[in-house]
Amino acid sequence: MAMIEYDRQAAAAFVAGRHLGDDALAAWRERVAHHLRPTPATRLLDLGSGAGHWAAAFSRWYGIDVVAVEPSAAMRAAAEHPTLQGDAANIPLDDAAVDAVWLSTVVHHIPDLPAAATEIRRVLRPGGLILIRSAFAGRTEGVSLFRHFREAARILDARFPSVEAVVSAFGTAGCTEIALEPIPQRTAETLADALATFDRAAHTPLLLLSDEEYATGLSRLRAADPTEPVIDCLDLLVLRAQGAAHA
Ligand SMILES: C[S@@+](CC[C@H](N)C(=O)[O-])C[C@H]1O[C@@H](n2cnc3c(N)ncnc32)[C@H](O)[C@@H]1O
């Protein structure tokens, strides 16, 4: 079961509050291309694809075939890319069906990471890539929200997996870490813009706060300089499945 339930309200909050435009994601576009080296023959699985924002972006940016898989019916109903039902323990694809697997802000929702790593390895061709975009335990300093909601950073440190835990789970499944890099995104032009569309329901760590902790963080956020740009860094962790040589 996911850390929070992605019902219709959560899906709507996520689409409204977390989907960014191409300019805001320019660094992600460049760094994913650097690792993926997409060609028209590349087939990528977007696992836990939510409302399909990354799946649609990768199709548009790189001209590749993207298969989206998502467990929540509400997220699938809101999706901007065709989406199959499934989850990290049950991926509805054949063995060695894809060249790469993308997981964006999903790993903390997966209840059994070693089992998921084995299932992901099954659908990945030998030598294929796993690209994980996430905030990891112990690495929250790049996320601006946590400067205001400090208690949420402590919750993330306690409840989200660390890089080491994810690398270990995938290591058991025969995959090796090849890169870890923080990548910036322009979340909003100004803090005032971010506040105008701010919704607690779009951020899992904020949903895990008490109402009092949330109110404290919100007052810190409202007291900050409204003209400052909001730049956030999540990590890109890249692993490669053992097997055939790659180009
Ligand atoms: C924060 S959203 C991210 C959605 C999308 N990847 C994105 O970045 O826009 C987390 C997603 O993970 C999905 N999820 C939860 N548990 C999962 C699991 N065990 N396997 C795959 N996806 C899962 C949720 O339904 C939700 O859509």
Fold and architecture overview:
Pfam families: Methyltransf_11 (PF08241). This is Methyltransferase type 11 domain-containing protein. The chain has a seven-stranded mixed β-sheet with strand order 3-2-1-4-5-7-6, sandwiched between helices. α5 packs across α8. The chain is globular, with a radius of gyration of 18 Å. The protein has eleven helices and seven strands. With 247 residues, it is of the alpha/beta class. It has a single domain, classed as Rossmann fold (3-Layer(aba) Sandwich). β1, α3 and β2 form a beta-alpha-beta unit. The structure holds S-adenosylmethionine. S-adenosylmethionine binds next to α3.
Low-confidence stretches: none
3D shape:
globular
User: Might you state the CATH topology name?
Assistant: Rossmann fold
Number of domains: 1
Rounded mean pLDDT is: 94
- The percent range for strand residues is 15-25%
